[in-house]
Amino acid sequence: MGETQNLHLPLRNRSSLKKPLLIVLLVCITSVLLVCTYMYPQYNSISKSSACKGLSSRGCEAALSGWLPVHVRKFTDEEVAARVVIKDILRTPPVLNSKSKIAFLFLTPGTLPFEKLWDKFFQGQEGRFSIYIHPSKLRPVHISRHFSDREIHSDQVTWGRISMVDAERRLLANALEDPDNQHFVLLSESCVPLHTFDYTYRYLMHGNVSFIDSFEDPGPHGTGRHMDHMLPEIPREDFRKGAQWFTMKRQHALIVMADGLYYSKFREYCRPGVEANKNCIADEHYLPTFFHMLDPGGISNWSVTYVDWSERRWHPKTYKAREVSLKLLRNITSDDMSVHVTSVGKRGEELHWPCTWNGIRRPCYLFARKFHSDSVYKLVRLFPNYTSTEV
């Protein structure tokens, strides 16, 4: 019995030692909680004050709400109304019959230097296309027999500003008046066709998406242009970039015209001087962001208009007559990889995506820019030799 009692004594001693340790641990945890409780409201107040700098109380609430993921944040009444209308339009089935036409929308600062080439492209296709011209500067525009459909006049258009988007919307509005126009193509005066009209018609009319460029550029000239004033409707993670040269189905053209909410955010805030040194360019961000948010599965995320950014300047390379060759044009028409250049780093990073048409890998481009006006006769002469007839 004496030995047994001696064996139990160390256990009682260890048990008694645990009590002070538990008390110390509880005191430490309580102290940490008290410190956090004291510091958190200050941190929250500082963060809120920083986030809301320069914003109204409503704008402050919008900014803070905009930081929440879309699946967590509650949509505003304006967003609910806009999304209901857009979803209803997108549910409308497309109409494709013998009267269906493609509307070619030319956004030009003056003359159309490649009319002779376009005349060759449109030859014999009457009743399958419409042409709308929007001079972006108030200068006379020469119009040939194929370019006599519709000339639209408006205020001067400025590159990089919302007036460029307004010009696009004005072209779409006029073209939508004709119910037979089922696909819409935006082109500049320096654009040229790469394929026959039949090839282009089948590619666009029978494709399952609109060919709208949209990609994520995490650099200063991409996501870096997002404005906190755009929150909560346009979260930073949904901000996209892309070339303005689109082709879109009628349903997509209709939702662009129906949109007032998202367009107003770009009209008010996507311009220089709103926030620090951000230089937001409306025509590069409005449609890419809008479609990424509202119908991401309905667009290609690449443009069917080829542009050469290899020189890494503010504007793409312009091909002069001496640079135009059959080899160059065949290389462009056979290219089945789209390229996007981000603003990350000094030279930017290239993103390469395969081009698919109804799920099948196909060449990317139907049109190309920029070409100098001195190349028109060379392009007219080469046109039959580099175009394709089958999709």
Annotation keywords:
alpha/beta, five-stranded mixed β-sheet, 391 residues, disordered N terminus, single chain
What's the SSE blueprint?
Layout (H helix, E strand, L loop, with lengths): L1 H50 L5 H10 L10 H14 L10 E8 L6 H8 L6 E7 L14 E2 L10 H15 L4 E8 L3 E2 L3 H9 L4 E4 L33 E3 H9 L2 H9 L12 H13 L4 E3 L3 E2 L19 H9 L2 E5 L8 E5 L1 E2 L2 E2 L5 E2 L7 H11 L5
Parallel strand pairs: 1-2, 1-4, 2-3, 6-8, 9-14
Antiparallel strand pairs: 4-7, 5-14, 10-11, 12-13
Helix pairs in contact: 3-7, 5-7, 8-9
Description:
The chain is an alpha/beta fold and 391 residues long. The chain contains 11 helices and 14 strands. The strands form 5 sheets. It has a 5-stranded mixed beta sheet, sandwiched between helices. The chain is globular. InterPro entries: BC10-like, Glyco_trans_14. Its main location: membrane.
